[in-house]
Amino acid sequence: MEDDGPSLVRRLRDGLRLVSTVVQAFAEPTPEYLESLDAIAHDVAEVIPDMCVVLLRSGDQFSVVAIHDGSPDARARFVDLLNQPYPVRDSVIAAGVIANGPLLEPWLDTWLDTGEHPAFQRGSQAASVERRILSHATGMIVAPLAARGESLGVLWVLRHGEGKPLLDELDLEIIIDLANHAALAVSNARLFKQLERVERLRVAEERAVHASSLLDGIVENIPDMVFVKDADQLAFVRLNRAGEDLLGISRDQLLGKTAGELFAPHEAEFFSAKDAEALATGLVEIPEESIQTRHGIRWLHTKKVPLLDSAGTPRYLLGISHDITERKQAIAELSAAKLAAEDANRELESFSYSVAHDLRTPLRAIDGFSQALVEDYGDKLDVEGRRYLTRVREAAQRMAELIDDLLTLSRVTRSELRRDRVDLSALAHTLLSAFQRVDPDRQVELSISPGIVADADPQLVAIALDNLLGNAWKFTSKRPAARIEVGVTQAHGVPAYFVRDNGAGFDMTYRDKLFGVFQRLHPESEFPGTGIGLATVARIAQRHRGRAWAVGVPGEGATFFFTLTEPHAA
Amino acid sequence: MQHEHVIVLVEDNANDEELMLRAFRKSNIENRVVILRDGAEALDYFFARGDHAGRSALEIAQVVLLDLKLPKVGGIEVLRALREDDRTRLLPIVILTSSAEDQDLVRCYSLGANSYVRKPVDFTQFVDAVRQLGRYWLMVNQAAPSSMM
């Protein structure tokens, strides 16, 4: 010891300051301990020249994590050593210090001659890293970094060049103290990191559990059967509540079993074939499959899809089955009802055919022979007798009209609706001209709005308009200044076509009766008619999803409306 | 021997038959009327078989008035059979029926009926219709040459 008093005091003060810096640097547990170690190496190198190296052990390797040197040149020489791991078994200095405790070599002059520490001569495999650190060193202190019984590495201080104070016991103590603090800090930081990792894992696990239970809740409450099979054995690994309800067995009875152990052979064979298909090709959709359950046969619409792992290999098979039994039944009932309706329609058709043929034939005889009687034996009858025969003929002809009107009504009901563009204005003109030809003497003022067009069945609309215009023509027959108007307005958001006349009109009290079959509001003697025409109009409107209605005032006229589409919802 | 131009009436209803004959008389149609009362008999007549095997080959149908609703073989079937056979393919056939069903009308025309008349209930109209028929088929229309009749 050559130090004088003030020099010693300065070194002690510097040493204490260094320890305090280190303690402060590690006061807060921080995972960034490598930065702190770097700062320590720097401070140590400043206070205790000339170089400071921190080596950390990781498994069976050492590596330099910090290196500082008073001279920038020197530092540049060593910077390539940073983070160059080398095996513990090749280590002489670091491994020796960890095994035997701190090392103080105040004067390395013998090494200077040979360039080698004596220890290195024991094996030529000695790490070149440690040799490089030692080169040009004239003295050194190496202290183990150990905390909580674990050796973390070493703190290695080196002196370069001659003529500088030798490293001594005081330096050793300071370095050991520093090393202990640093080691504890490193240990703390590592613990902290570990804790942090554990915490992260715990949070991740918590999240996973949360996500999984959310998923479970969803799967469990899906109203369709959801099942999962493993891809290898095709054994059930999952079944939701809807699946239990559908199959009538609990998941405990089902999980771990294959289709073959649970279902009838032909069903199991089908299910397994579809499973294999899904695993081989991706999504498979089975629009209809039957399954024998505890509640009888159920029909399912099933989708099967393979669930792949990250490598793309199918691990599971997911199946979702929608129970379509009720829907299938409803469809079957519907088609049965449709067949029955078609049967009824065919019956009606043959009935109508018979009516047309068979009922008219005797009427023809009644009319024909009455006429023959008038013609051949008229002179043998008095006026009254001939009048009776006229009445017989009138009645027969009227009945023929009734039959024809009823046939029209039935045809309107059963004929297929074919919508097309219909020019109602032109149609009204044609029909009214026909009425005018039959009654050439009548003077009727006609007002037909031009360009009334409807998307409707041309034949049915012609029948409807013929009936309405026929009525208007008929009920204005006693008016000296008769007027018939055809137009279109809006009702319930859709076009409402109308025929207005200034004829006999009707009492609104009876407006509900107007559109009933055989309903008449005027005596036959006053206005002839069968009472089927307006029923036919209403039926035609209904066939088009529209409706027919009327407003009228007795003695002033009536307006008949009809629509040919569904009303718009208000 | 002279050819005889006859009217063939295929009709099963006695009333209609009598009214038809009366309408012919009223319309001054004097051709002999051959009356056949069902579809099977009609076919026998036209193909000269069965009860009609020995009928005169000189008898030529100027017009056939065919009802649709007939016993045994229906009018539609008779029409089809007559149109399928070369011997009767060109025979003038008027469908005379009560039916005003569109489907009947379309079927008859598509099977080759020459005309389709609905029998009116009103006898006055009935006579009118027969008169017009007679005027066209018996006086105006030039019958197609027949290979057999």
Descriptive report:
The complex is a heterodimer of chains A (570) and B (149). Helix content of chain A is 49%, strand content 23%. Chain A has helices at 5-27, 33-47, 72-78, 93-100, 109-114, 128-134, 169-221, 241-247, 251-254, 259-262, 265-281, 325-377, 383-414, 424-438, 458-475, 533-543; strands at residues 51-58, 61-69, 86-87, 103-105, 137-147, 150-160, 225-230, 236-239, 284-293, 296-308, 314-323, 420-423, 444-448, 453-456, 482-491, 494-501, 548-553, 557-563. The radius of gyration of chain A is 55 Å and the shape is rod-shaped. The two termini of chain A are 110 Å apart. Chain B contains five helices and five strands. Chain B has a five-stranded parallel beta sheet with strand order 2-1-3-4-5, with helices on both faces. The interface between A and B is medium-sized, with 23 and 19 residues.
**Could you say which overall geometry of chain A the principal axes of the C-alpha atoms support?**
rod-shaped
Report mean pLDDT of chain B, rounded to a whole number: 86
Give the helix proportion of chain B (percent range). Answer: 25-40%
Class inferred from helices and paired strands of chain B: alpha/beta
Structural class of chain A: alpha+beta
Estimated share of beta-strand residues of chain A: 15-25%
Unreliable stretches of chain B, pLDDT < 50, 5 or more residues? Answer: none
Largest interface: A-B, 23 and 19 residues
Assembly state here?
heterodimer
Major sheet characteristics of chain A: 6 strands, antiparallel
Q: pLDDT under 50 segments of chain A (min length 5)? A: none
Beta-strand level of the residues of chain B, as a percent range?
15-25%
- Kindly report the spatial arrangement of strands forming the biggest sheet of chain A: 3-2-1-6-5-4
Shape of chain B: globular
Q: Please state the average pLDDT score of chain A.
A: 85
Distance between the termini of chain B: 13 Å
**Rg of chain A, Cα atoms, Å:** 55 Å
Number of strands of chain A: 18
